[in-house]
Known about the structure:
Elements: H1 2-21, H2 28-50, H3 60-82, H4 87-98, H5 106-114, H6 119-145, H7 156-164, H8 167-177, H9 185-196, H10 198-209, H11 216-242, H12 248-258, H13 265-272, H14 277-302
Helix pairs in contact: 1-10, 2-8, 2-9, 2-10, 3-4, 3-6, 3-11, 3-12, 4-6, 4-11, 4-13, 4-14, 5-6, 5-12, 6-12, 6-13, 11-12, 11-14, 12-14, 13-14
Amino acid sequence: MPGLVLFVVTLIGAGYLLRRSGRVRAETARDLNEIVFMVTLPPLVFRAVHGAGMSWSMLVLPGLAWGATLLGVALGWLVARAMRLDRASAGAVVLATAFGNTTFFGYPVVLAFYGPDHLAPAVLYDLLGASIAANSIGVLVASLCGQSEAGSGIGVGATLRRLARLPPLWALGLGLALRGVPLPTAVDDVLRHMGVATVPIIMLSIGMSLEVRHGPRAWGVAALVAAGRLLVVPGAVFAVTGTLDLPPEWRRAAVIQAGMPSMFFALTLSLLFRLRVELALDAIVATLVAGVATLPFWHWLLG
């Protein structure tokens, strides 16, 4: 565990220092995310699903993701009401509380904690649950609380087009379709090596994206968001899964994914719909820093 924490902190810290030193452009983090999303993450998802034992009962995992999302929306709304936030601020808070970084941070953490046997349930939780929720409920929340710019509609067609542009979702479908079909060794080796590059690139990108701007009140809000995102939501999933007869790897993947720091998509939506960007950014930073402590706690509790 200390080695894992050191690995994460070192790469995120290296990315942060590179950005602060001016050695990389502000756009570099976005470029790295695009590389991961288009090139290295799809092979990782494909291999995780293609080689895993799957069943219809695993659909409980995206169900848990949707439940965790709705709980996060309710918690974010309660924080906004308690802090008497305006509509634009409330929208940013709800987004940061409801949606965790289940792809770019979730996959590396699950892999590091438990290994590749737990990645398939983490993928199903994310791609069929959290990611679709973010692209539907998340956009709806942002639209209701802010002002959309041209071309950012929230209709069914726009939502489906966004989902169709998710390469990991295509990799999931292809992996499911080709289950039981052996891959040539050379092809499998290429996909494996491509997938391995995902984790270090993501950690560097996260570090490059970090930025702290604001004062005590904003950080008070961020602390409440962090408590909901990192403790209450995964605690609820932990409690619910404890009552279900789930394989241990399913429960572990679901709880760890539920306890992820706020996703960067919350910042993207805040920019797009003119919400309080600084609140979303502070919440992302706060949950990421606090997650260094809470994620090992959930790992310890789950065994």
